[in-house]
Design goal:
Among the domains are: 73 residues, Protein of unknown function (DUF541), domain 1 (Translation Initiation Factor IF3), CATH 3.30.110.170; 100 residues, 2-Layer Sandwich (Alpha-Beta Plaits). It is built from four helices and eight strands; from the N terminus they run H-E-E-H-E-E-H-E-H-E-E-E. Helix 2 packs antiparallel against helix 3.
Length: 254
């Protein structure tokens, strides 16, 4: 065999051994990386907990949804009647300290009303339009909680015939947010420590920390329209809720 052929054969043998050599070099590197702490959270021994807090604080704001519902044979007649009543309501509320910035239109709907199907109707029976309904809702958002009873009485007398919502909330929930977060975090930490002690392991360090946002929860009251001549409807503000939820994952060791 010529010298050129010998060199070519030697080169082919080296190429054939290259994958084996490469894998033998990469394996120690991979093991070193794992020993160096580059493991994912899922690969590390860990413990996950969630801390929840819920504060009850006095409400300082009320939300009221008032509505006028009118029905008439034609859409124009229903709309006219509804407009007159709603204007009367707004004018009357303005006279008892409700400012313009404290109310706004919430929803306005015009829909046809259909005849109901008789119990023993013909197979080819079809509903027909018997009239129209107009619904106009007014949203009141105010801190004048002491005026709510007066406003409801005035509104009902002037034409309001539907009260969809009366709820209490907090204008600035961030005031209590820090307290809720601290409480949730302390609950999560306490649970993790107690669980680790029960399982005979130690908390090493925090691997992940996340906040699950919780908006202030309204305190809602069911309101039934009742006639009480000469008396103001009694409305007492409730407590609103401010909450927080904290999720923590700890690395653990025996």
């Amino acid at each position: 065999m010529s010298p050129i052929e010998n060199r070519s054969l030697h080169a082919l043998r080296l190429l054939a051994l290259f994958p084996v050599l490469l894998s033998s070099l990469l394996l120690p590197i991979e093991l070193m990386a794992r020993k160096g702490g580059n493991l994912s959270v899922e690969e590390l021994p860990h413990l996950s907990v969630v801390g929840n807090s819920l504060l009850h604080r006095p409400a300082d704001q009320v939300l009221i949804t008032l509505g006028v519902i009118s029905e008439a044979p034609t859409a124009a007649e229903a709309l006219k009647e509804n407009n007159e009543k709603m204007r009367a309501v707004i004018d009357a509320l303005s006279e008892v300290r409700l400012a313009k910035g404290e109310y706004e239109s919430d929803q306005f709907v015009i829909r046809p009303l259909y005849t109901e199907q008789p119990k023993h109707s013909d197979p080819d029976w079809q509903p027909t339009i018997r009239g129209y309904q107009v619904s106009n809702r007014l949203l009141i958002k105010t801190s004048q909680i002491d005026q709510v009873g007066v406003w409801l009485d005035v509104a009902v007398k002037r034409g309001i015939n539907n009260i969809d919502d009366l709820s209490f909330t907090i204008q600035e929930p961030r005031v209590y947010r820090k307290e809720a977060l601290q409480m949730a975090a302390s609950y999560a930490k306490a649970d993790a420590e107690q669980l680790a002690a029960a399982m005979g392991v130690k908390l090493k360090k925090v691997l992940t920390l996340s906040l699950d946002d919780q908006r202030p929860i309204r305190y809602q009251r069911n309101f039934a329209m009742m006639s009480s001549p000469g008396d103001t409807t009694p409305i007492v503000a409730g407590m609103a809720e401010v909450g927080a939820s904290v999720s923590v994952t700890y690395e653990i060791e025996e």
